[in-house]
Amino acid sequence: MGRIGDGDVHAAYVEFRAKESDKCLSAQCIYCQSVRAKNTSRQRQHLLECPNYLSAMKEHNPDNPILHESINGPPIQTTPQPKPNKKRDHETMMSGFQGEASASRSFPIPKPILERDFQISVQLNPKIPVGPGIWGQRSWITYISGHWNGRWGKGTVVPGGQDSHLTAPDLSTHIESKYCLQTHDHPPAYIVVKNDGWRVGPRDILEKLENPAEADEVDPKTYSFRTYISMETGDSRYLHLNTGMWIGSGIKRVIYDAYRVI
């Protein structure tokens, strides 16, 4: 266990001037927000007694020398050894950023949430095999029609949309789609949709999905068909879609649910 270095102390504080007229900097503990004059020895002593800091180190960085000294007392002085470089985990690294811009508070990063937003069902023309390329077998599929409904509207899928499939040797398939939605409004709005994702799973399952006689009988839980979805429109009623993000979960017969990322 290494000794406590100034870097371990400084990483737990942000420095700032409480007043423009102050000649000396103040330091604020990012774990309990207590403020004191900048002094490395006193800052170190505070961390040895700060329950929030010690709790965070216990969970995210159990090798932290300040935590070690708080539990076991000061280390026995030995011949200094080269200190190895250690990678801090993301949360510890983020909380260690310093600067006047972050002097007020340290905020947790929000976690994204998925909300089921709409569903699409599409009828397809037969697949056209383009042939093998350097990345795999390329196929082309066009849309006959379809329908959709969701929290913000409903309508049809305009004929002429396209799928481009690239199937790797292990039968995993990368899928790129581009098509247009028409709403049931009067007059209707038109929304361009782009999909990009993968269909993956055990080889025997993927072989069945490639066989039209068996594909519809395959349990969707035995493979993964996930896409990233984005949309674009110039219609003022649906401009909120332009900045949205969605994750699609689909099945072979091309029905998928779209979950908005919020």
TrEMBL record:
Q: Where is this region: Disordered?
A: 59-91
**Superkingdom of this entry's organism?**
Eukaryota
What PANTHER family does the record tag this protein with? UPF0311 PROTEIN BLR7842
Its protein name is: Uncharacterized protein
> Organism source for this protein?
Ramalina farinacea
